[in-house]
Amino acid sequence: MIARLAILLIGLNGVIRVHSLLERPHLATFRDDVGTIAAIAVPAIAANIANPVSNAYVTYVIASYGDDAVAGWALIGRIMPVAFGGIYALSGSIGPILGQNLGAGNNARVRRTLVDALVVTVGFTAAAWLILAAFGSTLVASFHAQGGAAELVLFNCQWVAPLFAFLGALFVANACFNTLGLAHYSTWFNWSRATLGTVPFVLAGGYLAGPKGVLIGNMAGGIPFGLLAVWLCFRLIGRLKTATPDPA
């Protein structure tokens, strides 16, 4: 709650004091803008709903392996967002950069932004993986995890964490889709990953290797969709028209 309040206050300070952007709302302006905003916001919201649905299904499956498995999964759900918070932030920050270069018709820089974001995603994932692998036992001890829960957390830190790079690639691609005015692509990819990329992979992983297999299946299901989304982004960028240089 305090973190959210801090974000609100910092944002309002920038809007009101720093940039003087706040003014009284006008109905006519709202009518003009709401359609444009909704065209991106509604599919983006629908895309974000997919992740909780996917996590709920994984929780449902992993619950069949007992309390230790559920406890381990719950701890993983606390660790991963912190360990890979930089990738979540990256996917939210590259949109304005992509949009600025897209508006300028500089398609080479749009492509370069996407490439750089993917490089950062891979590099950040590698660094986070090394830290998790090195300090996995410390994390387990800090949560007082024991038995199967501790084993599951350690397994995730050592072997499953690097697969987050493909989810990060999907996040970056979604930001690209939103900027290109194709937010419905983000919805399609996220829901495909949450269903086709989750259910069969999790079931197969659980059948082959129990709760550890569920973890691997959950992350492995993101590989084809992350790669396909990135490939499609590059295809779409390649089809963009380059701005005509100003004769002046």
Question: Helices and strands in order, then pairings?
Answer:
Layout: H1 2-18, H2 27-62, H3 67-83, H4 85-103, H5 107-142, H6 147-160, H7 164-179, H8 183-195, H9 199-220, H10 222-238
Summed up:
With 248 residues, this protein is an all-alpha fold. The chain has helices at 2-18, 27-62, 67-83, 85-103, 107-142, 147-160, 164-179, 183-195, 199-220, 222-238.
Notes on the protein architecture:
The chain has 10 helices and no strands. It has one domain. With 248 residues, the chain is mainly alpha-helical. It is globular and about 60 Å long. It has helices at residues 2-18, 27-62, 67-83, 85-103, 107-142, 147-160, 164-179, 183-195, 199-220, 222-238. Helices cover 83% and strands 0% of the residues.
Main pleated-sheet profile: none
Can you tell me the overall shape?
Answer: globular
Ends: how far apart?
A: 53 Å
Portion of residues within helices: over 70%
Q: Helix tally?
A: 10
Strand content: under 5%
Residue ranges: pLDDT <50 for 5 or more in a row? 244-248
**Integer average pLDDT:** 93
| Total domain units | 1
- The chain-level structural class is mainly alpha
List keywords for this structure.
single chain, 248 residues, mainly alpha, 10 helices, 83% helix, disordered C terminus
